Amino acid sequence: MTAPHPATGGAPAPGGTPGGAADGEAFDPAAAAARATEAILHDTLHGPHRGVVVDSPPGAGKSTLVVRAARELAAAGRPLMVVAQTNAQVDDLVDRLAREDPELPVGRLHSSEPHPYDPVLDQHPSVRASAKVADLAGLDVVVSTAAKWAHIKGVEPWRHAIVDEAYQMRSDALLAVAGLFERALFVGDPGQLDPFSVVGADQWAGLSYDPSASAVSTLLAHNPQLPQHRLPVSWRLPASAAPLVSDAFYPYTPFRSGTGHGDRRLRFGVPSDGSGPDRVLDEAAESGWGLLELPARRTPRTDPEAVGAVALVVRRLLDRGGAAVSERSADPVPLTADRIAVGTAHRDQAAAVRAALAGLGVVGVTVDTANRLQGREFDVTVVLHPLSGRPDATEFHLETGRLCVLASRHRHACVVVCRAGVAELLDEHPSTEPVQLGVTVKFPDGWEANHAVLAHLAEHRVSWRP
Amino acid sequence: MSLITALARMEAVRDRRARPVATVRHRHLSDRPLVFVPLTTAGEAGAPLGALVGTERDAPRLLVVAQPRDRDLRFAFLAELAEVVLPYVDSYADDVDLEERKETDPETGKKVPVQVELCADAPQLLVPSGAGVEFVRLLGRSMRFRRTAEQDPETPFPAPARVPLLGRWLTHYGERSRVPGSCLLQAMTDLLTRHWATGQSHLEDQHLGALLAWIDPPDGMPGDEAALRAESERDAGGQLLCPPAGPATDPAFDNKLLAPAMARYDAARMAVAGAEDGARAERHLAELHRAEAEIRELIASQMRPTWDAVWRGLDLLRALPEGARVAERWKRDRWSYTGHRDRVRAGEPPQPRVDDAVTAAQKLAARETAQAQLEAQEALDDPLVMAGRRLAGEAFAGEVAEVVMAWSETKVPRPRPLVTVRTGDRPHLAEGVKLYRVLPDGRTQTGEFAGYAEPDGPDGPADPSEPDGPAGPADPDEGAEPARPGDVPEGAEGALVVRLTGGMGRGKTPEQGSVPEPGDRVCWTLFEHAPRGGPELPDPEATPWTHGGPPEAAVAQAPDPVTEEDLL
Amino acid sequence: MAGRPARQPEAAGAGRPPRPGKALRQRLAELRGPATTPHPLDARALAALAANPGCRRRALLDGAGVDKLALAQALGSPAAFGQSQFAHQRGNTFEARVKADGGQALTRLLHERLRDGSPAPEPGTTTVPDLTAAGPQGRTARTALALREATAAGGWALLDHPMVSLDIAGSPAFLEPDAVVVHPDGSWTVIEIKSFPMVDGSADPAKVGAAARQAAVYALALDRVAALAGARVRHEVLLVCPKDFSNLPTAELVDVRKQLAVTRRQLTRLTRIEEIAATLPDGLTFDLRLADDGRTVTRPVEELRAAVDAVDAAYAPECLSACELAVHCRARCRAAGGVESLGRGVRGELGGLTTVEAVLAAALGEAADADRPAPPTGDPAVDALRRAAALRAEALRAAPAAVPAAGPAPAPGPAPEPAPAAVPGPAAGPAAVPGPAAVPGPAQGAACR
């Protein structure tokens, strides 16, 4: 009854693509990514299997793949349903589909709540929105959330489905919608936050269909023969970040950066004033990573000094006239507030950072928790380390996916603000976890991933006393 | 642990006595609960040693297994247990109310109202601690697949007649107790810790004697001292004065008292079996009875303090007034009991060993709904629980400063008054967040957050803030965070504008009393008051391919293979 | 599954802490008491090192080989550890039964669980080498030899109660796994036999976790023998338990890579005792100075207490089930008013406040009620506590009935009350302060209108 977890499997999946070329060989990221995409589309459109699973590390082009697969399926005369997990994801996807293929008839199935979808969709003539699935009958593509699809009954099953963010979908949510389609492409990032339940589900631990497990683990436990693919190239993460994120969070399914070391550059028009925030910004601009380390101290979650330091880093980032050069454009692009995000572990921390930013007159910077930053992309991120100032590490703070999300949202640089002493905190963390028979051990575990990230950050440390 | 609970624990340290964390009783207590205090043999999975069981505080039934390795004695124990428990369980089966329920007509496929029976009350089983609940499950599992001679004349070691049925009931009760807020089977330690905080840790609270010592210490003794004594004080012979609440026994008891007594019992049995003439047999038999009586006395001595503690705990809990919505939850327990009664009556087979995919998903969904309902109802029933939700930013209470009438811009304009509430609370609000409050007549009124008020009054909606959060799984920890000053923008000292969106009747003018007036005290929550369950799941026979297809039916019901050395 | 090993932050030389110098060995002997033999550490004790790695007191006492149980008794705070003879007998009976047929059943169970398509062991082909030898060193050497021979033989072999050793702070700890199976391919599997049941394929996760940590210690000790024998130790151990309610064995493989990584790290960290020892005053010792009868403690208890107090502890309630000294540490923690005595989780939101007294003083520091919050102090922990205290007091005042156990303290507490003169403490009866609003009865809408 062992439920294999794709992220832990030893060998690459059958039909999968290798993560990188052998040492010494030149690696052509575009070609590798194209090969992977072709193989996925081939299995999806022509393969004998009812399901195809695609693991997509951060920024590997998951949305591009979903849009392309949807268009090709539609073009092949196979109407499909798309299942995403949140309304924001559904709206994004519909918007992208409509922009890339204005001729494609797309249905947006939504709830009957007030303001059920993003009004931007109303600008697309090819998009029809309705709370009733019957209104959308005959459209090539119908997109909705898993929660909404679960209420659809008594319809002819779709021949095809795409399930997006399948690793964040719970097994029981898949159970509720799987009757609506005959075959499906499952796409997701195994490294992000796992689904969970607010009540105990231990009695089903180890069962292949544990309702609180991820949809993909149930799917593969029952259908081990399904082809599993992997997108091998992150187009988001710079060359400075991909190896760390790949090693720390995807040890058995490595990926590469699509860009080289010189391809992305971050410059400032205003020179450093020698302060901690400026020095850490210079370090991050240079190396892609920066750790602004405050003196060790036990603090509550909304540590005013750490929150203030985060806000100050953002303020300086804007004041110093940052400009980013990347493969997207030869000319430097000014680093504006909308290209910056602050990531925290808790909502109250995000609220405190927002207040601190407002106090410094900063507007337009995204500030959110790891949960809500999943799937998003920025040029520079400033992260309040989940363990900063804590008296102890908890399962919540050690969760691999949380750190992975926070450390993999950026295209250029990531600055982490943290109090000293986290390494010791990790060392003193008791390890007395219960073990459930039949549950596959998940790797990497949060403790090791945290150590790996911390060790790397230590090389880019700027100590500062506010 | 929430800050407010942590504070209660620290108050308890200061006062050297437990402090309340609830002002009403949040769990249903039967007028006639069945208290069950079991003991088990160390190292054996399902070898009961004894039990005190009954509904009469002064007259518990003592059941003892003098030699737990003896299958016949174990079966005798279980048969006796069934004799006590099953009549109690059955005594609630025939007093029924009629309820109307919608069911799908198999011919027309339409939902039609039908009259169904709902038992007017349900049996309630109380055990001392969480380990006791586990033991009830284990007993249930060990018994429900047993075969009686009547069911299967060929079965090698037939179980006494009513034992499999007892196994099914205990299984049902054990499973029901996993539903948040359910009260069919409860542990006294859980009941007490729900209502009081002690000056010790949650782990130490699992000791019923110590827990009670904090809540209700003996005269003149500080709770911490009393708890320490309950935990560890031993007599001259090295025996605990307050034995553990079980089902595990204290090793010192096993080694110093029980093992020698069992050895005497075994020797006496051997002697009886080997007796050569009637006179000697009689003498040996007398020894055997003496040895057995000694074991009964020993085991009773270990359980009696726990039995008394459970009843003492009941006294304390009954002194609390019952929460207003407790009866509503108990009604669901009555449905649960009635449903199982019907399945037993219909001759359905015992519950399978392992849930199939659909059943597991259904149970999980039902429990998540029950959890959400429980959290909402406890907060609405109890200002102290609501205080915790307010601290967590999930509710706010305050005084109405101003009410501005407004109407929706629809064809038929509906009342959408804007209510300004002055509050010191710091709820986690964003534009358009739904809000709920209880109206004086008990109905729920809905509203939405319309913005922070300017110091001189409401000026309509504030600028739209963040996009709606993910509809999918949210961070469990995020739900329970203390609010911070940072949540409220500078200068907006806690004056919030709520747009009422419901609960005002059908007309253009709101019904009398449905709109609060300046000076009224109101409390809005960000959580729903009656959260509903999830979607319907497919029938097990329609389990999709992603979940392994329909389950195989036959295997699940086979009895456990029996061997010479079985324990139960 | 020939999976890849878990990645360890410090793989090289892990599990073999650098041999401490003679000076340290001498110092540890002094700490233990010159006439006292080191208390042997078994696998369970080694596994328990990970239960509270932040505790310097435990690290030092274990590293020095101090008998913590005897120490706790001498301090007057005996631990409530003990095993029932019923459990002991049951464990022995079950283990004997599992091994009764010369390992055939065990190797068959192991092979079934592997599901690797290899041929099943032929009945009667599993060898059971004789491991008898004199003394632990002798048995360890005999085990190593038997393992090498069995590996070279290329068949199934069962080593019944082998002996392996690990270097703990300069002294060898001898460990005795229930069994080790040598596979035909030359790999080894640690067998852990437990008497708790597997019912319908699942078992108590806490017990399985403890078994996995214990088995990881054996696997680690075997690793060194395997390296010399050119063999490898599998990172999945076989946990054998009674099936359902029978005495029949059933088994599951348990992946112990995480436990291995943790144990390696903890053993490496035992070298830290050198640093801890260096900070202690000269002449400090935990010697009980036993009388000639070997039982009577002659050391004054105050002296012992002072010696123990000289090393910092990191007490948490979880220690009560993991450390013999926990009852003593709890008493000290409570006497000092440490918030940890209420649970590790309590500290999360308290920032720099570490005692109950400080928390209560902060919470009640300034008159406040829920509707008129006190001015922010700039310390979010204090602000949040004040809000919590104000909300709690308001709710208790509004309680529909007298709340039991709300009476005043019967005696001065261990932490003196911070005397909140301006604030009517929450302990003041419901009538002491008028509520902020008319309070409805316990009927619907009690909390909320």
Automatic annotation (TrEMBL), chain A:
PANTHER family: DNA-BINDING PROTEIN SMUBP-2 (PTHR43788:SF8), DNA2/NAM7 HELICASE FAMILY MEMBER (PTHR43788). This is DNA2/NAM7 helicase helicase domain-containing protein. The lineage of its organism: Bacteria, Bacillati, Actinomycetota, Actinomycetes, Kitasatosporales. Residues 12-22 have a biased composition (Gly residues). It comes from Streptomyces sparsogenes DSM 40356. GO terms for molecular function: 5'-3' DNA helicase activity. Residues 1-27 are annotated as: Disordered. Residues 1-11 have a biased composition (Low complexity). Residues 49-113 form the DNA2/NAM7 helicase helicase domain. It comes from the Bacteria.
Automatic annotation (TrEMBL), chain B:
This is Uncharacterized protein. Residues 439-568 are annotated as: Disordered. Residues 450-474 have a biased composition (Low complexity). It comes from the Bacteria.
